[in-house]
Amino acid sequence: MKRILDQTLILKPENSKTNVPISFILDKDYSSLLFQCRYFPKKVEDLELAEREIIKGIEKYVPQEYRAAYTGWRDYAPLVNLVTLSLDYENEYLGCAHRHAPEQDHMISASHASPGFIPHKAAAGRWKAVLNVHAIISDRITYELKVTGFENSERPDDSI
Amino acid sequence: MIQYKAFEMHTHTLHSDGKFTPEELCRTAEQYQFDGIALTDHNTLSAHAYLSSHPDASRIPVVEGIEWTTFFGHMLVLGAESYVDWRYAKPADIDFYLEKIRNVNGVIGLAHPFEIGSPMCTGCHWDFQVRDWNNINYIEVWSKSAPTTHFDNALSFRMWTQILNQGYRIAATAGRDWHWETETRAHAAATYIGVENGEITTRSVCDAIRAGRTYVTAGPAIDFKISAGQRTFAIGDTMPSGICSCRIEIDETKRKAIWGDFGIDVSGIRIVSNGNVIYSSPEEAKMESSFNLELKPGWVRAELYGNALGETGKRIGFTSPIYVE
Questions:
Q1: Cα distance from B250 to chain A (closest Cα, Å)?
Q2: In chain A, fewer beta carbons within 10 Å around the N or the C end?
Q3: pLDDT at residue A154, rounded to an integer
Q4: CB contact under 8 A, A96 and B155
């Protein structure tokens, strides 16, 4: 088992609607790769900010004639930050885990991949984890990505 | 021979943010008496790879699709022969990506274009600036369950009509955006798609959508045909302008066990051409109606009106157009 990458990023509202690539080179083949993702906070705890942003959203997207049904901003609270992970190997797209949980583990190997990804050999070469930053509504979030390579004799948790 | 089959055209599994396994989705779709589904997970085709390697996982035909879940709009892509990267499309350059998808034979549909966007659902509202609507094959005019009750569907319907009025040929679909099953069965609309000989494959469904052979309904099945001279034209066809004979048949038996408990009753038929109502049924709609009309160049579609989910005067079904030259 070898830790390939251990990176922490700060993402802010201005990073919303952008992709943040994190490239790394595997200098040899592994049996499998484990991607551990964690970001926090998930929920927007600042209720004044949430109220302001939700009302702005309703005014932008709900025409006046339909707005009577949208009186309560709390119907849309809590707002959440959303970052998903997509993966590439040597410019080949391997998929995406478009899920909302702020802590996710994903495994890739030649015979198995976590849902959202296609199985792919954990081969030597250029890998790219792309953080799809859909929405950062909090002032800032912390995003942690750890990548671990496993040898033939080792196995990460089967449930991943 | 074209046969219309009932589809759910927008679904998700746990390969993205759905709660269904692929098996559960297929099994539940069967319980809703759909003839087929489009599996359109967010930004991944991995559920299709799973189904390919587990042929017993599904008895219902599954159309291969993906939902481009971008920051500026969601787009359903069916049957593309190779993957086109969703991540880098910007509002002003979407046509570049649309052309790339069409070059690999993908069929493209706007998903829920008027869904509330950021910060409630970033990217859910369509903000791309499409320059050439010939690149779009269909619009998901009805989204979510109970589609007659949502304001954004009224806006989507209006958008579709405006684009048709500009001379583009675009089919309509419904999509529940089905992520999980609710405890009590929800009202689900169906998209009926006219496939050759009733055969459902990704290719046959894509061909049918390209040809405009779709209609959307909250319940009853619709057969809409127009005769001019010795020829009869169906949804998606192109016919000459002038005097013609329209015929509509409404079938309230198909899938009635699924929609019959939601208070859906047809009370009227309208024929709409180029955005204008050119015929309204004079009384409570009969199951079969025939009447003559004069059609101008453009397009013509049939619409059903009536009760739905406790509301009256609702549009409860509509066809994609027959085009008129």
A1: 31
A2: N
A3: 73
A4: no
CA distances from B63 to A20, A43, B4, B7, B215 (A): 32, 35, 15, 10, 17
CATH architecture of residue range(s) A2-43+80-150: Sandwich (2.60)
The number of angstroms, rounded, from the C-alpha of B129 to the middle of its chain's C-alpha atoms is 22
* Closest CA relative to residue B299, chosen from B166, B156, B109: B166
Domain boundaries, chain A: 2-43+80-150, 49-78
| Closest Cβ opposite residue B71 in set A17, A53, A117 | A17
Separation CA B162–CA B275 (nearest Å): 8
Picking from B193, B216, B239, the residue at the C-terminal end of a domain is B216
Task: Mark yes or no for CB contact B43/A99 under 8 Å.
Answer: no
Q: With cut-offs at 50, 70 and 90, classify the pLDDT of residue A155.
A: low
In the prediction, which pLDDT does A72 show?
83
d(CA A127, CA A90): 6
Tens of pLDDT, residue by residue over A26-35, are: 999 999 999 9
Domain final residue, candidates B195, B216, B237: B216
Is the separation of the CB atoms in B112 and B143 below 8 Å?
yes
